[in-house]
Amino acid sequence: MKKSKFIWYNGKLVPWEKANTHVLSHGLHYGTGIFEGIRAYSNKKDLYIFRLQDHYDRFFNSAKVAMMQVPYSQKVLEKATIDLLKKNKLKDCYIRPLAFIGEGAIGINPGKNKINMIIAAFEWGRYLGEDGISKGIRMKISSYARMSVNSFMTKSKISGNYINSVFAKREAVGLGYDEALLLDDDGYISEGTGENIYIVRNGEIKTTPVTSILEGITRDCVFKICADNNIRIKEQKFTRDELYIADEVFLSGTAAEITPVREVDDRGIGTGKPGKITQLIQKEYADIIKGINTKYKNWLTTV
Ligand code: PMP
Predict the structure, then answer these.
(1) Among 196, 208, 250, 289, which is best to mutate for testing ligand 1, by the most ligand atoms less than 8 A from CB?
(2) Active site residue 157
């Protein structure tokens, strides 16, 4: 991650180093915040924010689940995001909107504490590495289960939820793997720490239904790409051994984009190289985000 000049903080552009908060902010103690992860991509001519409105739609849904009143309208935040990229003179970048509960009450009930809002944007390369995107990554089933939907709510990007992902990620990386794969309460495959997962068998794709997972925006792109290319994709629970014997496995996410998985629990997947369907989806996704595939131009916001 590379620092940029300004961060949008409660309606103002402040220098990166000055974007601080009080140590008694409720969000810092209890994870009472909601956030998004968005990417912008440039081609030779233009810079596009990918699915800006969809990300802010999800942001406001997260706010609803978390019972937090975002103090700005979606229109204001979308415009602030565009302006921030311009002011920071950014090209390809990652955008992180976050609303968090500020100082005041320090008990569990945040009462009427102020809700703060920031938008940061910065250069951030391949989340799972250049090699990960081209050759595939190695995953390990986590000893941590995906958080239970009746304890944490997985349809929302609530900051505190992510401790589950942090535990799993640190464990997997500590053991020498690239990413963790979490099972749900019933022992079925759920998702990665920040990615949805897919298996390909006999030319058909299966992905986890929207139960224990975050409804990924990239996941929605994968469904559209499959429809355009006559690839069958179904939402169905599957087990870890079905994944071991799949022909291909891949992940999707704003940060991870479309990442092939070449190994799970020390078992090679398929040929051990990114498969045909994974590569096709990767290529289609790359064309969509750069505006080369004009069918989805409405997903791009020009900066
Ligand atoms: N699952 C989790 C837990 C995530 O944090 C993310 C990243 N937002 C995803 C899946 C993928 O979602 P998206 O494609 O919208 O980035």
Answers:
(1) 196
(2) yes
**CB burial class (10 A; 0-12, 13-18, 19+) of residue 45?**
exposed
Query: Which three-class secondary structure state does DSSP give residue 117?
Result: strand
Other beta carbons within 10 angstroms of residue 218's beta carbon come to 21
pLDDT, tens digit, 9 for 90 and up, residues 282-298: 999 999 999 999 999 99
Residues enclosing ligand 1, CB less than 6 A?
37, 165, 191, 194-196, 213-214, 216-219, 252-254
- Which domains does the chain carry? 6-122 (3.30.470.10), 130-289 (3.20.10.10)
Distance from the CA of 105 to the center of ligand 1, in angstroms?
A: 31
User: What would the pLDDT profile of 176-204 be if each residue is shown by its tens digit?
Assistant: 999 999 999 999 999 999 999 999 999 99
Q: What is the pLDDT of residues 222-259, one digit of tens each?
A: 999 999 999 999 999 999 999 999 999 999 999 999 99
**Selected catalytic residue, list 140, 157, 169, 206:** 157
CB 7 within 8 A of CB 83: no
Q: How far is the CA of 7 from the centre of ligand 1 (A)?
A: 23
Q: pTM here?
A: 0.96
